[in-house]
């Protein structure tokens, strides 16, 4: 297997788990909160496909919906009834959603949102924040990892490392996060040119960082006074922090938001949702929105089954996610304290981050970049040896399939991994 992958797959492996440790993880199958590898090892999984498996891997209602849909058509590339039902449900769940368009992956939905913002306002520029990740398409890529260092200061690299160039970079303005003064200055400097400000409402790509109290309200006000749209990239936070995403969790409404990952139980569906007055630029044909696989029926069937559960069983689902997440956060912090390792654990709970640092808090990308990430890489490898799979940078995703016993076993494995370092 390893030799075949080395020979035929660019880079030799298709997954980044263990790559950092130099030992690839080949997944054989996944169910509930667990993964099995090709050698028969079992892992408690806190990567969950980078977030999508919020109900655990292969939840029965999603498997049933997908199986039933396969018999009714795998591709339509046309409108269908389930698409309208999912759009209706999504608009009922997400506070700022009045109209929806579906795509396949998150990067596409971000691209659609940025295009719409430019078309709607007639302005060229997008303002984004340091360390926030919005997908891997060239116009949205830079200031992200890998390499993480490219997510650094608010300057404009001439090109993304490893790409031919970055012609659109001139239309990107990059700002430090959690700093209203910096945002205000940049919006004044680019007055009349910024189509939209885009943010991860809770930063999850370089740490798991909630905005300072009042910060996003301030961002909302600055957008309104400058005539710029506010876009929430809820690809991670959507349906994970609350049925209505981070906008419900934090009580701030964007004009547009994008969803992906958790909305379809692991199937590939993303959504651009927003205020009718903006989204109607798509309806009127002023702004194009295309894609062969948009609203693909299997993904939509999975989204319908998933969103029904998240909506109708919200107390149970979110009660479990927060309880398990916070138990695990507490357990890991105690294990580190017992081992005498300076480690910070922070985040909402359904997703959280551990950092090796002596700092009392991590509040933005620059703080994150100052933590000991080499040590995190070693921990990642040591945890795999103990049967625990976390996102290599130290991020943990919870699912409703994780039990109290899983959390206890994870804390024990974590202590063993720390000692082995
Ligand atoms: N935005 C955010 C906040 C993300 O975390 C990601 C993926 N990790 C994306 C966009 C891109 O989504 P995808 O990988 O599905 O294209």
Question: Class of the largest domain in CATH?
Answer: Alpha Beta
- The CATH superfamily label of the largest domain reads Type I PLP-dependent aspartate aminotransferase-like (Major domain)
- State the share of residues found in helices, binned by percent: 25-40%
> How would you state the average pLDDT, rounded?
90
Lateral strand order in the biggest sheet? 4-10-9-8-7-5-6
InterPro entries: Aminotrans_3, Aminotrans_3_PPA_site
Keywords: Aminotransferase, Pyridoxal phosphate, Transferase
GO molecular function: transaminase activity
Cofactor: pyridoxal 5'-phosphate
Explain what this protein looks like in three dimensions.
It is a single chain. With 421 residues, this protein is an alpha/beta fold. The chain folds into two domains: 2-58 and 314-420, Aspartate Aminotransferase, domain 1 (Alpha-Beta Complex), CATH 3.90.1150; 73-312, Type I PLP-dependent aspartate aminotransferase-like (Major domain) (Aspartate Aminotransferase, domain 2, 3-Layer(aba) Sandwich). The protein has 14 helices and 14 strands. It has helices at 2-8, 60-70, 81-93, 106-121, 138-141, 180-189, 215-226, 245-250, 276-283, 297-312, 314-339, 365-369, 373-385, 404-420; strands spanning 27-31, 34-37, 42-45, 99-103, 125-129, 172-175, 194-199, 229-233, 256-259, 270-274, 343-346, 351-356, 388-389, 395-397. The strands form three sheets. The chain has a seven-stranded mixed sheet with strand order 4-10-9-8-7-5-6, sandwiched between helices. α10 (297-312) packs across α11 and α13 crosses α14. The longest helix is centred in the C-terminal third of the chain and has 26 residues, at 314-339. It binds 4'-deoxy-4'-aminopyridoxal-5'-phosphate. Residues 50, 105-107, 110, 133-135, 200, 205, 233, 235-236, 260 line the site of 4'-deoxy-4'-aminopyridoxal-5'-phosphate (PMP). InterPro entries: Aminotrans_3, Aminotrans_3_PPA_site. Belongs to the class-III pyridoxal-phosphate-dependent aminotransferase family. Keywords: Aminotransferase, Pyridoxal phosphate, Transferase.
């Amino acid at each position: 297997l390893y030799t075949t992958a080395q020979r035929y797959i660019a880079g030799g492996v298709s997954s980044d788990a263990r790559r950092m440790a130099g030992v690839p993880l080949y997944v054989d199958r996944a169910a509930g909160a667990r993964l099995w590898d090709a050698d028969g090892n079992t892992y408690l999984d806190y990567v969950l496909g980078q977030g999508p498996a919020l109900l655990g891997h292969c939840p029965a209602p999603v498997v049933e919906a997908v199986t039933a849909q396969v018999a009714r058509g795998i591709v339509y590339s046309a409108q269908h009834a389930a698409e309208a039902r999912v759009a209706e449900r999504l608009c009922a769940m997400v506070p700022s959603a009045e109209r929806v368009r579906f795509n396949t992956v998150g990067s596409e939905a971000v691209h659609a949102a940025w295009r719409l913002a430019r078309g709607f306002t007639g302005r060229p520029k997008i303002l984004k924040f340091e360390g926030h990740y919005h997908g891997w398409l060239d116009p949205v890529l830079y200031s992200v990892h890998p390499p993480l260092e490219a997510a650094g200061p608010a300057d404009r690299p001439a090109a993304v490392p490893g790409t031919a160039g970055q012609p659109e970079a001139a239309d990107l303005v990059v700002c430090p996060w959690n700093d209203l003064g910096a945002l205000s200055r940049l919006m004044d400097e680019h007055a009349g040119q910024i189509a939209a400000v885009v943010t991860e409402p809770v930063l999850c790509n370089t740490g798991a960082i909630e905005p300072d109290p009042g910060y996003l309200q301030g961002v909302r006000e600055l957008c309104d006074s400058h005539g710029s749209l506010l876009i929430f990239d809820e690809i991670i936070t959507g349906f994970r922090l609350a049925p209505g995403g981070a906008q419900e969790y934090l009580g701030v409404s964007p004009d547009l938001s994008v969803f992906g990952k958790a909305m379809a139980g692991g199937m590939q569906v993303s959504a651009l949702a927003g205020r009718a007055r903006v989204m109607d630029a798509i309806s009127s044909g002023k702004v194009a929105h295309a894609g062969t696989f948009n609203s693909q029926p299997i993904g939509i069937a999975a989204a319908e089954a998933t969103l029904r559960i998240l909506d109708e069983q919200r107390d149970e689902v979110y009660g479990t996610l927060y309880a398990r997440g916070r138990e695990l956060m507490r357990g890991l912090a105690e294990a580190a304290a017992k081992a005498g390792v300076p480690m910070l654990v922070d985040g909402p709970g359904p997703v959280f981050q551990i950092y090796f640092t002596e700092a009392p808090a991590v509040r933005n990308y620059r703080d994150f970049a100052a933590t000991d990430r080499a040590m995190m890489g070693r921990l990642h490898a040591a945890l795999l040896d103990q049967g625990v799979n976390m996102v290599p940078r130290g991020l943990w995703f919870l699912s409703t399939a994780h039990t109290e016993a899983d959390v206890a076993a994870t804390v024990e494995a974590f202590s063993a991994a720390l000692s082995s370092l």
